[in-house]
Amino acid sequence: MLKPLRQGLPPLDPAAVSDAASCALPARYEAVREARCFTRATLDQWDVGDRFDDICLVVSELVTNALRHAVPTDTACAAHTAPSARLHLMRWTERLVCAVRDPSHETPTPRDSDDFSAESGRGLFLVDSFADSWGWHPLAGTLEGKVVWALFRLRPTT
């Protein structure tokens, strides 16, 4: 059973962010590979210790979900008018947040994943399993859509 989905991000001081990076993700499935490459290159520069693989896996799942469920896949529409997703990585001394912004207002809903032979449907289960916490919140103001985030605790550097 998944932990309850929480809205909002735990309190983190934006002024204390030690590193941040983001990239736009086009509305095509190749963007998952691009997000993985971006994440690996970014994390190679940051000291995230043993959380490297966990973070990369969760980013892949969040981006895949955004592209599959939130971003229109009609390439003619997507190339000209459809908003794309955006990946944000933010590192504090002992925490890292990866967040994926997409244009959908739909609530991310974990599927009941008792069928482990299914080829899809376990993305949020994996996010819940590998991240220390995760959730989502709608975008405020004039921005359309939502942000789905995952938080990772990092070991203090010595």
From TrEMBL:
It comes from Streptomyces monashensis. Residues 25-136 form the Histidine kinase/HSP90-like ATPase domain. One of its GO terms (molecular function) is protein serine/threonine kinase activity. Keywords: ATP-binding, Kinase, Nucleotide-binding, Serine/threonine-protein kinase, Transferase. The keyword Glycoprotein does not apply. It comes from the Bacteria. SUPFAM superfamilies: ATPase domain of HSP90 chaperone/DNA topoisomerase II/histidine kinase. This is ATP-binding protein. InterPro entries: Anti-sigma-factor_SerPK, HATPase_C_sf, HATPase_dom.
